[in-house]
Each structure stands twice: as C-alpha cells, then as structure tokens.
C-alpha cells in the first residue's frame, strides 16, 4: 500500500510539474492572472467554474482539446493560482480580464469554452467583446435565475463552507496551499451567486457568435432553460447530455471518470470546425 501511495504521489507531482511548465502570469486590470497555453492551432480559451481551477474543471479533457487547438486555460480572480484583489467578483470583471489577456497575447479572435460560472463569463464576453469572440461553448449555465432549480437558491440562503465539495477544496489547495485564500474564494463565489441578476434578454438575443449550449439532463440548470437559451441566441446549437453538472467533461466532482472517454468532445470538435 505504501508503494502504491508513493507512486500516486509521484504521478500527481509530475502532472503538476508539467502543468507548471506551461503556466505564466499576466497583469490585467490590476490582477496578476495565472494562465497556461497548451498545444497548437486556433485559440480556444477555457474558463473554469466557480470554486474551481483549470485542473478541477478541465483536467480530464484538456489534453484532448490541446491536440487540435492552442488551448489558453485561465484561472480567474480569487481562484487557484490567481490571487484576489480589492474589487467585487463579477462576470463583467472576469470577462474584462480575459479580454485584456487575449489582447496582451496578441490574439485578435478566439473560441471560448466556459463551464458553469465560466460559461456566464463566456456569455458576457460574447456580449461585451464580440470583436474578440469567434465561437462560444456555454456549458451548464443559465442567463436568468429561473433557469436553475429552486434548490440552488435555497442552498444559497444559508451557505456553509462544509458544503463545498471536498474535491474542489483539495484541487484548490493542490495549486495554492493557502487555506485562507480557499475560504475567501468560497465566500466570494457565494456572494456573487447570492446577488445573481438576470442577464438582459436583448443582450442574449443580440449574441452574434455561433454558440453551442451544453447541459446535463440532471444538471444544476434545467433542460427547459437550456432549450430556451438555444432559442434566444440566433445561431445556437443545443446538446442535452445524460448526467449531472459537468459529468460530460469529467469535472472533478463527478461520480465517475468515464475511463477517460468523453464522447461530447466529438460534438465539440465538430461544432468548432464548422465554417
């Protein structure tokens, strides 16, 4: 058993070391933002979910995505290796930070793949920075409160740090061992969700970027809302996938790893390749 544990520790260490070799920081809007670049091809920006890191949201699918794309994976304000600063946590600020990073990197246009809160940021990018956005993939998100099941908002009335999934806590501390930063990140995300306001419907209808909407049939967001969103955005496709919040990409809290096989990636690649 000790030998097995030693092997697992070595594997995790090597995995983190490989990630770090691709990791860099950029100062954007007063924020020292951590990001990684993997692979070659047309730029694809990955935006993680709330309480998450690059690895906990996209770790199981990033290597496959990097086979076809120049993947630019970011960690947003108060998440993982990107420290907090003295400003509100908001989708507007996150979108502004990603936009500023792309401009610094000399990337005039990119595809955007956001999960959960990161998908709300992707929608905001498409609305506020359309010149930077080619296509967007918005996974497991809503543009208005009624799009999520009522239990989510009930939970947000009396949140507890104990409710944060163990996998997300461990994933955060694996890249940033500051427990105070983890607690602060949790509180920041909770505050943002408690003050969540509906996006302007006309803004959603005005999105010009081709859009792929993905949701699980047992997700935090309702399938009905995913259908509604697909009808609001003029050039939208819709995928309702079996499973819960992020099962289809192997998000770290999902029950199974699907043996490394994520068929949704084929649909994503087909969407991104379409003219």
Write the layout of secondary structure elements.
Elements: H1 2-21, E1 23-28, E2 31-38, E3 42-47, H2 54-58, H3 62-65, E4 69-75, H4 91-104, E5 110-115, H5 117-128, E6 133-139, H6 150-157, H7 166-175, H8 179-194, H9 201-205, E7 211-216, H10 223-232, E8 236-241, H11 264-273
Parallel strand pairs: 3-4, 3-5, 5-6, 6-7, 7-8
Antiparallel strand pairs: 1-2, 2-4
Helix pairs in contact: 4-5
Organism: Pedobacter rhizosphaerae
Signal peptide: 1-19
GO molecular function, one term: triacylglycerol lipase activity
Structural summary, described in words:
- The structure is a single chain.
- Helices cover 41% and strands 19% of the residues.
- The chain has helices at residues 2-21, 54-58, 62-65, 91-104, 117-128, 150-157, 166-175, 179-194, 201-205, 223-232, 264-273, and strands spanning 23-28, 31-38, 42-47, 69-75, 110-115, 133-139, 211-216, 236-241.
- It has 275 residues and is of the alpha/beta class.
- Mean pLDDT is 92; it is low at 1-20.
- β1 and β2 form a beta hairpin.
- It has one domain: Rossmann fold (3-Layer(aba) Sandwich), CATH 3.40.50.
- The protein has an eight-stranded mixed β-sheet with strand order 1-2-4-3-5-6-7-8, sandwiched between helices.
- α4 (91-104) packs across α5 (117-128).
- GO terms for molecular function: triacylglycerol lipase activity.
- Residues 1-19 form the signal peptide.
- InterPro entries: AB_hydrolase, AB_hydrolase_1, AB_hydrolase_fold.
